[in-house]
């Protein structure tokens, strides 16, 4: 197969004549005829030639308008139609060729493990059975749908009689003015919204079904109705149709080239581009905070970052990012780099950069990530700094591991960690959100077989596809429309570049995480065994700082709040940030974005906490830095990563972060 492109190929030149790459395939406007002057001789009308029709067309390329609806278009219009026809044919051929090549590339691969890997069928069957047993409820729902359509027809009739167009929709899918200004598209939009809202509401109204079964049916009904939005189809998307008309079909040609490139990048599976991946290089324009790799083993590289101040706090800060993603979400660009910002606040910053595991790590589980990861990184950080204690950060799943490690340390009377911060981390998974839908035993068996087929690791794209499904309109369909229907090139967006830079996961670790945490919620119940000890979170007594995000769909705020309360004997400080799983965490003060809430108490429920919380504008980083500084010791001369006991191996960001899946 051809080498995977870093960006979609430029459109092919039209067969008619060579043109510059990237220009629309459209007829060039003809130069205007020179007007006759008084000095020009008047030529007598010539006798009729053998081809009077051709002569007449040359003399007057644009025939006058007539009342004949079947009159032929002028030459300019004909050339535009020819260009449009040519580009539509090219677009169709590009798509057909890409699909054929994808089919051939998939031909020698095993068939899907299951036609229904998420076990949606039984969930929908339960919902439908429940509805069928309540004919009165079903009849009421049908009457409700009929009334909604009657209201819609009444609104459309008033529009036809001259009523003003409605205000533009706040739904990002329908932000183009044509969706409200054009009566046909307005009708299409509102009809879709009526039907999809009715379908989702009908499923949600079922009462006598297991809550998790019902939630699975709700989730996949929402996925289905989102997929059938008229904005996702060329013939019913006014913005895409306008782009096609304005470019004589060139936008559709480019869109199908984007489609072909994404199929090739996914090796036969559609892998929608979310960013211009060719614009970023790790270590060159992302992950550029200066520092040194001071330790490397089979599981991680330990990076110590350069000081940005003359003095630093005596107690170093060691960050454990999630192994599902790479650490440079905390060091994208200088202006939004959490690592640079922490260095500027006078902290000695270390990061554990996890290896991107391959088949040789298939047997690594929580025990290995505890002993060879958490404990070894703590040991090497203390060795490098000469400090007796270290403060730690656990981000997302890295925080889950760090919480279990703190309980393990408490059982062993290990006091090397003085204080810990958790970013969007869960330890009590009772209310872990929609990801719980992907962790029933049926799906776990499917994913286990998938990892076996991949040699004992979860392919990097697998988790990304799951996360994208949680926000399908934002992370799937918006790019489908922009890239393929509109023919636009993805933007150079550092966060989405990082989001696509996926990592693999060892089978033993991942299956234990899904079954023990999501499936059985063992950690919060004191039933999780790690490092040979059944650990109890209530035994942890060091200061803890929890950060949750109000719109987090990966670690929902209620789940993080329950996790904070699981450390019942620790001094817990919790802050709620605006936005979601990433932007809620990576929000530098200089951006002046969002807000955060604080409350010194930790009552029984999140709702009670929110009722007593105080809202503050902007980032939560300063609040956290003040908390951290109080627990980081005196100020000492700044540490140089090149002059510690551990000799530098290579400059940051190291080698492990550059390994592609």
Rg over CA atoms: 31 Å
Number of helices: 20
Order of adjacent strands in the largest pleated sheet: 15-14-13-12-7-6-4-5-2-1-17
Uncertain runs are: 1-67
Number of strands: 17
Global structural class: alpha/beta
Distance between the termini: 18 Å
* Proportion in β-strands: 5-15%
Average predicted confidence as pLDDT: 87
What kind of sheet is the major sheet?
11 strands, mixed
What spatial form do the alpha-carbon principal axes imply?
A: globular
Can you give the helix content as a percent range? 40-55%
What do you see in this structure?
This protein is an alpha/beta fold. It has helices spanning 52-59, 75-106, 120-132, 135-160, 178-181, 183-204, 211-227, 238-246, 250-265, 338-344, 366-385, 397-412, 441-453, 460-470, 472-485, 494-500, 507-519, 557-566, 606-611, 621-629, and strands spanning 291-296, 300-305, 311-313, 317-320, 349-354, 390-395, 417-423, 457-458, 505-506, 528-530, 533-535, 544-549, 572-577, 595-599, 614-617, 635-637, 650-651. The strands form four sheets. An eleven-stranded mixed β-sheet has the order 15-14-13-12-7-6-4-5-2-1-17, with helices on both faces. Strands 3-16 form a two-stranded antiparallel ribbon. The chain starts with 51 loop residues before the first helix and ends in a 10-residue tail after the last strand. Mean pLDDT is 87; it is low at 1-67.
């Amino acid at each position: 197969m051809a080498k995977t492109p870093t960006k979609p190929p430029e459109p092919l030149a039209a067969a008619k004549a060579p043109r510059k790459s990237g220009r629309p395939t459209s007829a060039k406007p003809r130069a205007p005829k020179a007007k006759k002057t008084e000095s020009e001789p008047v030529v007598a009308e010539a006798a009729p030639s053998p081809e009077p029709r051709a002569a007449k067309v040359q003399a007057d390329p644009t025939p006058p308008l007539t009342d004949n609806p079947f009159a032929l278009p002028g030459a300019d219009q004909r050339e535009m139609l020819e260009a449009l026809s040519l580009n539509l044919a090219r677009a169709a051929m590009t798509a057909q060729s890409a699909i054929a090549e994808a089919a051939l590339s998939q031909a020698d691969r095993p068939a899907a493990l299951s036609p229904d890997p998420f076990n949606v069928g039984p969930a929908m069957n339960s919902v439908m059975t429940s509805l069928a047993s309540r004919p009165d409820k079903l009849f009421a729902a049908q009457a409700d749908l009929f009334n909604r359509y009657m209201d819609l027809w009444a609104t459309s009739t008033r529009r036809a009689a001259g009523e003003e167009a409605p205000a533009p929709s706040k739904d990002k899918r329908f932000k183009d003015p044509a969706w409200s200004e054009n009566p046909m598209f307005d009708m299409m939009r509102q009809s879709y919204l009526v039907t999809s809202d009715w379908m989702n509401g009908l499923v949600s109204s079922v009462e006598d079904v297991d809550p998790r079964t019902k939630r699975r049916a709700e989730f996949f009904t929402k996925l289905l109705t989102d997929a059938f939005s008229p904005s996702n189809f060329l013939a019913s998307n006014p913005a895409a149709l306008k782009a096609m008309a304005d470019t004589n079909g060139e936008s559709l040609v480019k869109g199908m080239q984007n489609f072909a490139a994404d199929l090739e990048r996914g090796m036969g599976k559609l892998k929608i581009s979310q960013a211009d991946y060719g614009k970023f290089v790790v270590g060159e324009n992302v992950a550029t905070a200066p520092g040194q790799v001071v330790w490397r083993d089979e599981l991680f590289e330990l990076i110590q970052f350069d000081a940005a101040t003359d003095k630093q706090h005596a107690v170093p800060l060691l960050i454990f990012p999630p192994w599902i993603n790479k650490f440079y979400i905390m060091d994208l660009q200088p202006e939004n780099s959490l690592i640079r910002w922490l260095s500027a606040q006078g902290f000695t910053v270390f990061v554990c950069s996890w290896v991107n595991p391959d088949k040789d790590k298939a047997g690594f589980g929580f025990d290995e990530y505890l002993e060879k990861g958490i404990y070894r990184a703590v040991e090497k950080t203390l060795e490098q700094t000469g400090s007796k204690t270290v403060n730690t950060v656990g981000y997302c799943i890295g925080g889950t591991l760090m919480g279990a490690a703190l309980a393990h340390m408490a059982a062993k009377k290990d006091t090397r960690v003085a204080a810990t911060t958790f970013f969007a981390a869960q330890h009590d998974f009772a209310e872990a959100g929609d990801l719980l839908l992907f962790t029933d035993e049926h799906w776990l068996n499917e994913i286990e077989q998938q990892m076996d087929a991949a040699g004992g690791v979860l392919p990097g794209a697998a988790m990304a596809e799951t996360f994208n499904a949680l926000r399908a309109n934002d992370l799937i369909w918006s790019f489908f429309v922009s890239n393929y229907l509109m023919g636009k090139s993805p933007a150079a967006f550092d966060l989405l570049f990082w989001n696509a830079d996926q990592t693999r996961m060892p089978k033993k670790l991942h299956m234990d995480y899904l079954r023990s945490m999501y499936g059985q919620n063992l950690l919060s119940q004191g039933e999780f065994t790690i490092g040979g000890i059944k650990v109890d979170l209530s035994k942890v007594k060091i200061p803890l700082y929890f950060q949750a995000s109000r719109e987090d769909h990966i670690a929902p705020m209620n789940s993080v709040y329950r996790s904070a309360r699981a450390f019942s004997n620790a001094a817990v400080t919790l802050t709620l940030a605006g936005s979601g799983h990433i932007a809620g965490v990576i929000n530098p003060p200089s951006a002046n974005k969002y807000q955060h809430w604080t409350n010194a108490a930790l009552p029984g429920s999140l709702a009670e906490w929110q009722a007593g919380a105080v809202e503050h504008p902007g980032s939560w980083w300063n609040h956290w830095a003040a908390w951290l500084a109080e627990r980081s010791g005196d100020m000492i001369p700044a540490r140089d990563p090149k002059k510690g006991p551990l000799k530098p191996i290579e400059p940051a960001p190291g080698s492990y972060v550059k390994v592609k899946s």
